Amino acid sequence: MVSSSMEELVSLCKRRGFIFQSNDIYGGVKGLYDYGPMGVELKNNLKSSWWKSMIYERDDIEGLDASILTGREVLKYSGHEDTFSDPLVDCKSCKSRWKSDQLIDKSCPNCKSKDLTDPRPFNLMFKTSIGPVDDGSSFAYLRPETAQQIFTNFKNVLDSTSRVLPFGIAQIGKAFRNEITPRNFIFRVREFEQMELEFFVEPGSDEKWHKYWIESRYHWWIEQGINKNRLELNEVNKNDLSHYSKATVDIMYNFPHGKEELEGIANRTDFDLASHTKNQKDFNISSKVLKNLKSTTKLAIQNLEDKKWFIPYVIEPSAGVERGFLALLNEAYTVDDKNSRIVLALKPHLSPIKAAVIPLKRNNDKLVNQAKNIKNNLQKLGLGRVMLENSGNIGKNYRRHDEIGTPLCITVDFETLEDKSVTIRDRDTMKQQRLSPEQLKNYYQKYFD
């Protein structure tokens, strides 16, 4: 049985060290979460899988890791200062605050009162001063998305790699949004990570590439273990498009709290590079951009045939790491009533722990030392974290590792001391088999390949 209960997922996350409320000993801060020993492994494995699919398995995408602090000019000319806001409504009765689209029949979701203020724009960007004196004249923003630093680095990447269209720049990193009402666990938070690709194409080919990336990203989530029956493609209504978008398709997922966006794939046209390029008047720009007086760089490409310069269009697949994390947990969480256990049936490449090596008796030095040797040898294969589980009770260890998603448990017993063979147990089938050291190595490598 796959869980649809957010309470079960939250309980698992705290109980097994996936996610903790940030600043918990002081009552916590809403919209901020810390990732524990299991959570950081799962999160890193998800990011690694995305990075591998974008960078290592392709020959047309480069990586980037840009700064979080973003100068004001970047977000001014990108349009974020003027448009990156949500409509804020105050309830005069209970003093709570809401986004206007959260109202239920024009009433406060908290106290049901209709005595509300008119909606007013609330800018979502965090602002911070730069330098020793906070006089308001020198400040920056914590980036609200990773995309803008990709656009401002467009020429740097182009010049240093000699790329030609079509090509992309990918980045994984932190972003910050001062959400009015963070909610639904890690789905909507104030500090999060994005996995974003900006794929630059020739004008006129953008619709073809937009369709390509929609299909590619949809199938990638299925490969990570998401049931396709829980996914749906939703074309965003033109009235709801972001200021930079010509067309956006969202990959929707049926989260425990309802169907919402897992990833968005936007056709941003030439808006972003045009916004940041110098001499905008020299180009036939399709989108409406602010006049830029400060940029020193021409963010354009020269046509090799007619030698004319043009500004590329860009297709942007953008996914939230936290939303992916939550979707994968929801998919993997399984209650095995027959065997009275909870199983986190993650794909092996995503599992926080790849294998647990368990000595039959925790206080037996010979068993423990042999288990350490096996653990170290498997760890050297570089397929992920291997854990020495030296807590004694085999049954409880199996149940614990089923619950955190460990695919393989390896038991070291007294027979191991005689012939070095071990018992290996599969998480999903619970089947056990005896393997020699060489068989164990081959089995382990083949399992994760």
Features:
about 450 residues, alpha+beta, BirA Bifunctional Protein, domain 2, Rossmann fold, 2 domains, five-stranded mixed beta sheet, 13 helices, 24 strands
Structure commentary:
With 449 residues, the chain is an alpha+beta fold. The protein folds into two domains: 6-84 and 140-330, BirA Bifunctional Protein, domain 2 (2-Layer Sandwich), CATH 3.30.930.10; 353-448, Rossmann fold. Helix content is 30%, strand content 27%. It is built from 13 helices and 24 strands. The protein has helices spanning 6-15, 37-56, 72-77, 80-83, 147-152, 154-161, 206-223, 271-276, 321-332, 365-379, 394-404, 414-419, 437-448; strands at residues 19-21, 33-35, 61-64, 69-71, 85-90, 97-99, 120-123, 127-129, 139-142, 167-176, 191-201, 231-235, 247-255, 258-267, 301-302, 309-310, 313-320, 333-336, 341-344, 355-359, 386-388, 408-412, 422-426, 432-435. The strands form seven sheets. Strands 3-10-11-17-14-13-12 form a seven-stranded mixed β-sheet. It has a five-stranded mixed β-sheet with strand order 21-20-22-23-24, sandwiched between helices. β15 (301-302) and β16 form a beta hairpin. α2 (37-56) packs across α9 (321-332). The radius of gyration is 25 Å and the shape is globular. The chain starts with 5 loop residues before the first helix and ends with a helix. The relative contact order is 0.12. The model has no long low-confidence stretch (mean pLDDT 93).
